[in-house]
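Task card 7
Instruction: Convert sequence to structure tokens.
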Amino acid sequence: MPFINIKTPEGALSRSQKEEIVQRATDMLVEYFSEAARPHTMVLMEEVKDGGYGRADEIFILPHAYRVKEDG
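Output:
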């Protein structure tokens, strides 16, 4: 079973954006493994809370401007 794990900042993506990522990631793996892989492909989207990761030696907080405006 192909498996993809994607971590994103909490609140950065809408539900529809997550659905699109799952679909496109699945399509990509189907290109490599064949259509038979589609029903067995798992895409796990994990949201990481602010302060739960760092970049360039500092704790990262997602700026308000990058947060999703609506979940739809």
